[in-house]
Amino acid sequence: MTHPVPQTQTLAARSQRAVWHPCTRLRPDAASNEPPLAIASGDGPWLVDTDGHRYFDAISSWWVNLFGHANPRINAALTAQLQTLEHVMLAGCTHAPAVELAERLSALTGHALGNAFYASDGASAVEIALKMSFHYWRNTGLATKREFVCLRHGYHGETVGALAVTDVEIFRDAYDPLTRRAHVVMSPDARQAAGDETAADVAARALAELETLLRERAGQIAALIVEPLVQGAAGMAMYDPSYLDGARALCDRYRIHLIADEIAVGCGRTGTFFAWEQTRDGEPVPPHAWPDFLCLSKGITGGYLPLSLVLSRPEIQRAFVADDIARSFLHSHSYTGNPLACRAALATLDLFEQDNVLAHNRDRAQWLADAMAGIAADARVSNVRQRGLIWAADVDADAAGADFAARFHIAARAHGVLARPIGNTLYVMPPYVFDAALANWLGEQLLATLQSVLGPQQDEQETRHAA
What digits encode the pLDDT tens for the residues 91-146? Predict the structure, then answer.
């Protein structure tokens, strides 16, 4: 029996009835549930809804889109791939896009990392890195090394293993009984600076706490996992690159793996292709200074198709070489290394190379900073920060009031912008397809949105000046 879809209902209403949307609160009063924004098409940095209204995608559709929606060059690469091979299992088979992508990503690390293990999403990549680390130590006779360390307020995904190394309560706490909780150490978040402390001073304090733990538990700890330079779900917490150098040295000293979760910050977001490259201030990262595992997802396909991967050091894979099947890494996904996703990723790498994207992004970063100056000057905003094409600032809690993020999101839509603050943190992470004029327009619309949500700032400034 068929059940006809009632065409009189809007797409948003049908979606509310049929789709369980992620990260969305379901209120008992159905009428108070905000309907989703029904998108019909995309074009460059713009999304177009079913009524024809356009929205600047200021958050790259959850940080995945790099070169705009419906990018003609990625479209062409996918169209060509569709004519030859849509999918084949990667267990016992292979194909050119998976091999070429692994080779090119390894080359970007100076071949310090390689042996790409493919999956479909960021949390899966984290799970793979955690399991590989644990299994490596078991295969090398150190089975007691089965604990993990993460940073305070770090986020690494929402599967059970990834939640164990996530320190964001709203995602983790309901499922705590299912997890094997990791050790949590101080974040190097520069917002913690006291007095005349610099970001580097905060990083040094965090490293000292990390070393205390590693010294005590080195025989039990398998790996430390970090989001290099920017902790996304922590409210775009940014920190000094010296922390990464120090963490690498400590992990070497105490024989502990270092996992770099570049799922959100990789692919040029921070100004270099890998955020980890900023530990060397423009110089190539020497082989010994790379992490042991590096996780990528989100932007690697330009925002087109689900794909994630883990790059690892060659010695990691060597520990799994044996006749005994129990020593093998028996982890799999049905769509591992999907040819279409890998081809989209290769087209994304082509765009980086052919268009000198990283150099042009330095200009875009400055345009973005200039455009957001109006918000930065608001007396109710603090901790203005930027790393590459990630700009963020914190709105005073008293001024923000309840449900700031939800209210700002809805208000921004009225100004033609898709934005989604994290708590009281307002941030933008746009695709790499805007000019100075469009950046200025974005800044104006976000400032108007902020003022519509908080009210005019004049009284607030006068109060502060009087105090």
Answer: 999 999 999 999 999 999 999 999 999 999 999 999 999 999 999 999 999 999 99
Cβ-based neighbour number of residue 94 at 10 Å: 13
CA-to-CA distance for 276 and 90, rounded, in angstroms? 29
Angle at 124 between CA 120 and CA 128, to 5 degrees: 120
**DSSP result, 314-373:** HHHHHTT-SS-GGGS-----TTTT-HHHHHHHHHHHHHHHHTTHHHHHHHHHHHHHHHTH
Cα separation values, 52 from 8, 49, 65, 416, Å: 18, 5, 21, 11
Q: Which helix (H) or strand (E) holds 103?
A: helix 96-108
Can you tell me the distance from the alpha carbon of 328 to that of 135, in angstroms, rounded to the nearest whole number? 9
At 150 the three-state DSSP class reads strand
CB 56, CB 418: distance < 8 Å? yes
Strand 381-387 relative to strand 390-395, pairing: antiparallel
Alpha carbon distance 186, 203 (integer Å): 9
Strands (E), 177-331: 183-185, 221-226, 230-231, 237-238, 257-261, 293-296, 308-312
Return the closest-CA partner of residue 134 out of 187, 168, 180.
180
Q: What are the tokens at 160?
A: 């059970």
Query: CA separation (Å) from 224 to 41, 210, 261, 294?
Result: 41, 10, 10, 12
- Using 50, 70 and 90 to split pLDDT, how confident is the model at 459? low
- Spatial neighbors of 57 by CB under 8 A, at least 6 apart, are 42, 45, 46, 47, 65, 69, 418, 430, 431
Nearest Cα to Cα of residue 387 among 246, 230, 228: 230
**pTM for the whole thing?**
0.94
With beta carbons less than 8 A apart as the criterion, state whether 296 and 105 touch. Answer: yes
CB 273 within 8 A of CB 267: yes
Name the DSSP class of 182.
P
Instruction: Indicate the DSSP class of residue 74.
Output: H
Q: Which two tokens stand for residue 268?
A: 């040029």
Q: Are 230 and 266 in contact (CB under 8 A)?
A: no
Q: pLDDT tens digits for 3-12? A: 444 455 899 9
CB within 8 Å of 104: residues ≥ 6 apart:
346, 349
**Residue pointed to by tokens 């929402």:** 158
Which run of H or E residues covers position 261? strand 257-261
Task: Using alpha carbons, select from 284, 255, 281, 292 the residue that is nearest to residue 200.
Answer: 281
